[in-house]
Amino acid sequence: MRERDREQLLELFALAPFDSYLERGALAAARLAGGSGAICRRHGREVEVGVPAPHRLVVEVAGGQLEVQSDEPLDGEGERAARFGAELLGVGLGWIEQLVDAQGVLERQLAASGLGPRERELCRHLAEGTSTAAIAARMGLAESSVRTYLKRIFLKMGVSSRVELVARLRGSRTAAA
Question: Terminus of the chain with fewer CB atoms < 10 Å: N or C?
């Protein structure tokens, strides 16, 4: 791989919303409060973002703390904004943890399913809500081949619909669960 291609690939990885959410969220919460920088400590991880400043306000964020840094002391309104920003950051981090956990459940179910590699790939696309036509395009198959794969997967998994299959792969016994 050429160095330029590698650098562009690393730039794309930096855009991954899960990987950079803590940094982006901490800075957004700090700016909401009128700060210029932040340090967020959560689950043993510490990230520092923005421009460090002498005045610091520490507020609680889910599973850790957010230290908002500003050039001037934050007044009551700035403190309320920092707490609100930290609360929103905590909610976002919670959603990410749920999504990552759901992806882990999917991968564990696929690993234990007895499906072949192409069948597992097709199931991942289904779990993302991808249509038959889009799955065919992504996997380089005809739509009829995708439908054939689906029939085989349904038989192997003991389900009768896409909804039921995705529910099973997400760890539910039924689609309603």
Answer: N
